[in-house]
């Protein structure tokens, strides 16, 4: 045979194999598309589509079984709104092929065990719900499902583990019962009642101290703020009184009852929840947000389901799942929310707005970026201009009316959202309706809200525009013109100490001198702290700091770029004159004095100084709590600066922790000297071990291999950073305790009520620090309890700490 013929034969065989592979991939893609799209709107009925798809999958079962198993087991988790559709499909396949049904049940059990082991709690909950729904389709026996429930009940009753773990197992059962409750009621009523009794006993005994820290409002008027387990328990009890009949879940398997009832059922194996470990993170509890009831909705429209009706839970959960799937694309999210099935049976706009605000106000933090909810609400107003803007305006009015009892964290989010929303609608609002806030104290929540909104709007617009957008009567609440206050250019500024040196330094800086030349000039300034008779040298020169900081920042006040350039060029001067914390606090006072009328610029400058290590985090914290900042203490921008300071410290510690962990992994993966020796008898085994090391642990080309000494130095840096982090939290909480305790004592002495607006704001900010940084603060909880939050502390202050402790207890 000639070489040409051999080559032709090879090419023909290669093309044939490639065509076969391509055809197989095409069929697999088609099957995946058919499974994923089942239940979508088509001209055919869902029942006929399910029958046809079941026949197609049955025909391809032998060839593509593993592919079909994988897709069918993932779909109910990725698209939980189609739970009953997929359970019906699997039920039809089980009726045709009992072995496949058994393999599918085994697959779901493996997925559940893996989800529980890996801490994928939402996936595990949805798997439990899907397995429960498979009982309705005669795939799984009711008795074996009850065994699964019993194992979850046992996990919820376990002692010596965090309550958040036990709460999750209880929540997983409660949220599955609406799907299978009726079936269990008809076939296993006594067992169902036994499980309900166990749940009731657990809920009666559990600790609910954490609820106060998670509430959006601190009162239950007009709508109760219920903890999530208490709420779903009330809804399930209401469902039980209705004999487990709900009116929301679409159940396509009812149309195939004659087929499914003939199928053989499978028993679930014994599923034991994995034991608790110290590193396991469980979902935090939350409070169910309520803003509307049926009286807020139009009388001519559909009724809003009651707070304790299970339909309310099912609809809200479905809306939350839509947010989860489409949160990265605001237009698609808005479209899917408005395309909600059965939208004609509920006041959809009201429920969408309530769900989005519940996400925005979720404590301790929203699931997604705050601005994403604002973007979605804007898109909803564009898509539904006839109703959505009116519902959103009504919601805003309700929130404003209840703002007196809103917690500080949600207050800040409300301010940010409302100002952003106004900026997208030309700042139009019925300001005349809120004029009552003008007669209130400046620290009253309503007056504070309007003032903070104006300040945020200024960041999103410009001073003249903000002044024009509101009636003139609001002028007391409007922010001042955002410009630097350079006292040396004000009337009488020439007579201030250091005025001559300011002029000289200004002329020098315009010539772009070196840092050494600037330092030489300011070091000539007299030190007002120096005592002629004293032998000790003062820790810093406040006049030198004042002259240098104010002059440099004033010259750079044209833009952030000018300011950053000055900070970078004269970084060494800052480090020289501000060597200690007292000097850094003095410098921050001068920054504030210059930018007191421009909070945004002030925050950016402080952030830049932290990044460049001109100031330390502890100095910023002490400056915020100093008497100089007392007039600004209740303003939101102060707490923005404190939180960015804490976050910067937390990120620094997290980065060092990762570096140490990576270095340790590389060190373990590195070959020892004996393994690299040519005459080592175990050299081949060492080579084999090195080949099994994952790529991420293997140093890249040109990357230095860490040594034990290097890792030890990195660990020392980490320990120092963790010590700084703990010290920062101790300073913050100690200063909170000091000012709150002083306030309470002063009020008791004067015979006044301590529960003033200032006190409420300060306690709210203390709670905000606990909640915003709960993961980091938790590491030092024992230290805080021992040193600061002792039993002799005022109970009003101590309650905030106890609520934080209960969050993960």
UniProtKB/TrEMBL annotation:
GO molecular-function terms, A-Z: mRNA binding; RNA cap binding
UniProt cross-references to SUPFAM superfamilies, sorted A to Z: ARM repeat (SSF48371)
BP term (GO), one: RNA splicing
Localization: Nucleus
InterPro entries recorded: ARM-type_fold, CBP80, MIF4G-like_typ-1, MIF4G-like_typ-2, MIF4G-like_typ-3
Family indicated by similarity: Belongs to the NCBP1 family.
Subunit structure as annotated in this protein's UniProt entry: Component of the nuclear cap-binding complex (CBC), a heterodimer composed of Cbp80 and Cbp20 that interacts with m7GpppG-capped RNA.
Protein name, UniProt field: Nuclear cap-binding protein subunit 1
